[in-house]
Amino acid sequence: MGMLRYLPLILKNCWRNRRRTVLTVASIGVSMCLLGVMIAMFHAMYLSDATPEQALRLVTRNRISLTQDLPESYGSRIRQVPGVQDFLINDWFGGTYIDQRHFFAHFAVDSAKLFAIYPEFKIPADQRQAFERERTACVVGRDLANKYGFKLGDRIHLVGDIYPGDYEFVVRGIFDSPRPSEAMYISREYLEQSLPEARKGRAGTFALMLDSPASATRVAEAIDSQFRNSAAETKTESEQAYLLGFASLLGNVKMFLIGISAAVMFTILLVSANTMAMSVRERVREVGVLKTLGFTPATILSLIVGESVGISLAGGLIGFLLSMMLTSGVGKSPAGMFLPRVPAFQPAVAAACLLAAGAIGFVSSLVPALNASRTSIVEALRSTD
């Protein structure tokens, strides 16, 4: 409680050089913004828990790469593994809508199973039935519909690349999803019928619905053991791990995020330390005056450190608020559907940003504050800085 009486003095010292304070808060805020985005991405990718729906799903893909497919016949054998309730073949269609700038995800799926395997996708019953009944029907996510103004009955023309040809689909449904939904689903049966005989009977991935989350490890091991040493070995993993596989195509994402965060912390620590060193050097005579008035070295140390921590916390708060906006943008982007859900506000990220900012303020000011508190009255009053 004793230090609270000096709070007005600390706040006044923070604002004594307004330009320097504003620039320092801005630099810390920008750095903490970047750090907040990195921490949010890391937390969502590697520390967050799967949703109840995701916990009931596994994905079986080619062990070599996400770009390699599997025989469609694997599906019937996978279905026989105890614990597997059903499966959905999911193929990346690719294709271009208008031009390359209008990118969004296109998937060819078993239309009759899509909403059973992904129960979090909400769609009116009549729209679901129309999608399952018509070969050229498609369903689009609410985010995609809002972005391009798609309505029921609209026709979407795609130029295939993985599956060459011109394709036209009719929007028969718009679904809502708790995750970013800039995606379009078409009938895999229709796609298969348009392919030459040599290309039929292949599957990109199998999305599996389990009877219980507890079965996940056992089912994954059983499936991969079944196809070990075959021409196309499998890798069965959780849906979260599968989504992270897309990010891993860019390299070691975990080390990248950690490296960027460490570089940001180190850089802003140097900036803050330089600022506090300048601030303390300008006030050496003032420190001498305070000591003559009875301020103890511990009190002077607390005043200087408190000023630095206060400025850093202000920057950290601004940075976190900015990072919320950027994180929200990442989650709503087309790439967001290939990542685990990244909430805009995460208490753990807020705490990390503020703690990091406070630690930077404390560490950067500690040495200058100790030197100032140990300076004798005579030496301080003789200072000409």
Structural overview:
It is a single chain. The protein is of the alpha+beta class and 385 residues long. It has helices at residues 7-14, 18-47, 52-55, 74-79, 114-117, 125-133, 142-148, 188-193, 216-226, 239-248, 253-281, 284-292, 297-332, 347-374, 377-382; strands spanning 57-62, 70-71, 84-92, 105-109, 137-141, 155-160, 165-175, 183-187, 202-203, 205-210, 234-238. Strand 6 and strand 7 (165-175) form a beta hairpin. The longest helix is centred in the last third of the chain and has 36 residues, at 297-332. The mean pLDDT is 83.
Strand order of the largest sheet: 6-7-5-8-4-3-10-1-11
Count of DSSP E strands? 11
Low-confidence spans: pLDDT under 50, at least 5 residues? none
Can you give the mean pLDDT?
83
Give the biggest beta sheet: 9 strands, mixed
Strand share of the residues?
A: 15-25%
Q: What proportion of the residues is helical, as a percent range?
A: 40-55%
Q: How many whole angstroms does the radius of gyration measure?
A: 29 Å
Cα distance spanning the termini: 34 Å
Total number of helical segments?
Answer: 15
**Structural classification:** alpha+beta
Query: Helix and strand string, N-terminal first?
Result: HHHEEHEEHHEHEEEHEEHEHHHHHH
State the shape: elongated
Explain the layout of strands and helices:
Blueprint: H1 7-14, H2 18-47, H3 52-55, E1 57-62, E2 70-71, H4 74-79, E3 84-92, E4 105-109, H5 114-117, H6 125-133, E5 137-141, H7 142-148, E6 155-160, E7 165-175, E8 183-187, H8 188-193, E9 202-203, E10 205-210, H9 216-226, E11 234-238, H10 239-248, H11 253-281, H12 284-292, H13 297-332, H14 347-374, H15 377-382
Parallel strand pairs: 4-8, 5-7
Antiparallel strand pairs: 1-10, 1-11, 2-9, 3-4, 3-10, 5-8, 6-7
Helix pairs in contact: 1-13, 2-11, 2-13, 2-14, 11-14, 13-14
